[in-house]
Amino acid sequence: MTRCVILGSGGHGRAVAGLAQLIQGLDVVGVLDEFAGSKGEKVSGIPVVGIYADLPILLREGIDSVLIAVGNNTRRASLFQMAQDLGADLPSLCHPSAVVEPSATIGKGSYIGAMSYVGVEANVRNGVLVNTRVSIDHECQIDDFVSIAPASTIAGRSRIEVNACVGMGCSIADRVNVGASTIVGAGAVVLSDIPANAFAVGIPAKVKARAKFEP
C-alpha cells in the first residue's frame, strides 16, 4: 500500500481526492492546504492535516507519494518542484474510465480525468491536468504544467507548450502549435498556430491580447 498526501483542497483537490480513493493500492492519509485555517476540514472525505510547509515532516514520517491537486498551472509547477526537490514520488492518476493507448506516455504528477482519451504515441508530460472528456489524439505533445479543460479535443500531431491553458470545449485542429503560457478561451476553434503568451478566442480562434493573468 502506497501512503500518499494531496497538495490542494480546492475544486481540483476534490477531484484528485475522489479519484485517488478509486485506485487500489493508494492510502491517502491527508490533504495539505495553503492556509492554516483549513486544518480539520474534509476534502471528499479526506481530512486537511496541515499546510504545504508541513510536507517535509510528513515525508520523514513515512509518506511515500505526493499528489499535486492545484488547478493553477504556475502554482502547480511550484508545488511539483518543491515535492520533487524533497525526493517525493509524484505518481500520475488516471481515471478508470479513461483510455490511454499502450504507446502513449504520461509523465510524473499528471491527472487524466474521467472518460478522457490519450491517443497512440501521444506524450503527456509532467504536471499536466487533463480534465473530464478530453480527447488528445495520436502523436500529440502536451508539455509540462498544461491544463486542458473539460470536453476539449486536440487533433493529431498538435503541440500544447508549457504552462498553456486550453479552455472548456475547445477544438484544436491537427498539426497546430499553441505557445507557452497562452490561454485559449472556452469554445474556441484553433485552426492555426497561436504564439506564446497570447489570449485567443473565437471561431476561428484569433489572438485578442497578451495573456494578462496566470492560467
Keywords:
8-stranded mixed beta sheet; 13% helix; alpha/beta; 32% strand; 215 residues; 3 helices
Write the layout of secondary structure elements.
Elements: E1 2-7, H1 11-20, E2 26-33, E3 42-43, E4 46-51, H2 55-60, E5 65-68, H3 73-85, E6 93-94, E7 99-100, E8 105-106, E9 111-112, E10 117-118, E11 123-124, E12 129-130, E13 135-136, E14 141-142, E15 147-148, E16 153-154, E17 159-160, E18 165-166, E19 171-172, E20 177-178, E21 183-184, E22 189-190, E23 198-201, E24 206-210
Parallel strand pairs: 1-2, 1-5, 2-4, 6-9, 7-10, 8-11, 9-12, 10-13, 11-14, 12-15, 13-16, 14-17, 15-18, 16-19, 17-20, 18-21, 19-22, 21-23
Antiparallel strand pairs: 3-4, 23-24
Pfam families: PglD_N
Keywords: Transferase
Binding site for substrate: 71
Write structural notes for this entry.
The protein has 215 residues and is α/β, with parallel strands linked by helices. Helices cover 13% and strands 32% of the residues. It is built from three helices and 24 strands. The protein has helices at residues 11-20, 55-60, 73-85, and strands spanning 2-7, 26-33, 42-43, 46-51, 65-68, 93-94, 99-100, 105-106, 111-112, 117-118, 123-124, 129-130, 135-136, 141-142, 147-148, 153-154, 159-160, 165-166, 171-172, 177-178, 183-184, 189-190, 198-201, 206-210. An eight-stranded mixed β-sheet has the order 6-9-12-15-18-21-23-24, covered by helices on one side. The protein has a six-stranded parallel β-sheet with strand order 7-10-13-16-19-22, with no helix packed on it. The protein has a five-stranded mixed β-sheet with strand order 3-4-2-1-5. The N and C termini lie far apart (35 Å). The model has no long low-confidence stretch (mean pLDDT 95).
